[in-house]
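Quick start: load a record and inspect it. Here is Replication-associated recombination protein A:
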Amino acid sequence: MQQPLAYRMRPTKIDEIVGQQDLVGPGKIINRMVKAKLLSSMILYGPPGTGKTSIASAIAGSTKYAFRVLNAATDTKKDLQVVAEEAKMSGTVVLLLDEIHRLDKTKQDFLLPLLEKGAIILIGATTENPYININPAIRSRTQIFEVHPLSPADICQAIQRALGDSEKGLGQYKVNLSDEAMQFLSTATNGDLRSALNGLELAVKSTPKNDQDTIDISLSVIEECLQRKSLGADKSGDAHYDVISAFQKSIRGSDVDAALHYAGRLIEAGDLVSLVRRLLVIAYEDVGLANPAACERTVDAVYAANQLGLPEGRIPLANAIIELCLSPKSNSAMTAIDNALSDVRSGNFGEIPLWLKDAHYKGAKKLGRGVTYQYPHDFPNDWVKQQYLPDKIKNKQYYQPKDNGRIEKALKDQYLKLRRSFGH
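Running the structure step on this input writes:
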C-alpha cells in the first residue's frame, strides 16, 4: 500500500523538522532535551498538520528509541499493554498518543505509573487546549508545548524538499511547479503542511506528462486538487493578506458592502480559518468597548460557522460582519493594554505595594505583606480609597476612554469618577 506523501516525508531526525523552530531549533527546549538524552513526557497542542506527529517521530528517530502511535479515542487499554510489554523487553518506548484529550480514566490509570518510571515517554497530541481538556493527573506529569501553523516559507521549504527527494518524495517525477501554484499551495492551506503535501501529490500524480516528459503544475491544477479558489495570487504571495487587510479596514471604516465583498472572496476561496480568526480580532480591536455585546455575538457566530462549515457557515458570519460594520467603534481597550505593555517592556515600573503582596504563607506578616490591605467589600458600596499601582507610576493612566457608544460612555463616566475618588 502506497503511503501518503505527508506520511512518507515525516522527519526521522530533529534537524529535519520544518517549522516550530522555537521548540526544535538549535538551543531550544526540545532540541536540548534530545541532544542531552533527557527526554520527558510532553503534550503538543495546536491545529492539524502543524507538526505534532513529526516532532514525536523525530524525537524517537534522533534518540533511537522505538516509536509507537496510538489514538486515545479508538485504541484500547490492551493496545497500551502491548506498548508497555515492549518497553519492558527493549527499554524506553516513545509513544505518540493522538487525541490525548479523549483519554479515559482506565487508560490513564494504566499509563501513570509507566510515566513515573520513565518506561514510556508519552508525547500527547491534541488540537484542544490541554489546560482545559486534559486531566490534571496527566498534565502534572508532562511538559506542555504549543505548536503553531507553519508559515508560507516553511511550507515552501517542505514542498521543495518533497519534490527533490527521490526515495520518499516525488523526486522520481520531472515536475514544473509554477510560482503562482507554489504561492497558492503555501498560503491556501493555512499553515497545514499535511494538506499542502497531499494536495501536491494529487496534483503530480493526476496530471499527464507533456511532450518533454515533464509534469506542469499550474495554479488551476492546485486549485482543483485543494478544492479552493485563488484570491488572485501573485508572485509575491501578497494577495491573500491584501484581502484580509481590506476586509478589516472595510469593517473599521463601516462600509458594509465592501466588508461583505472581501468576506465573499475568502468564502469562495474556502478560507474559513482566516475569515473567522480575523473577524474575532476585528470585534475586539475595532469595536471593543463601544459595543461589547457585538463582540459576544461575533464569538457566537464564529462558533456556529465552525460547527456548520461552509457554505452554511457564511450565514452567521454575515450577521456578525453587518453588525460590526454598523456598530460604533472604539480601540481604547487595545490601546490601553498596549500602553501598559510598553511600560512593562521598558522596565518603567516599581515595587508592588506591600499591602497588595501575597500574605498566604507563614512569615508573610513579619515581612509586612498584606498587613495594611483594606478589603473593599468591608466598606460602603464595596469600595475604599487605596493605592494599587507601584509608587513609581502611581498616577499613570493607560486607559483613554472614548464616548463612542452608550456602553463606553457609561464606562468613561465611571472611570473618571473613580480616578477623581483615587485623587488623580
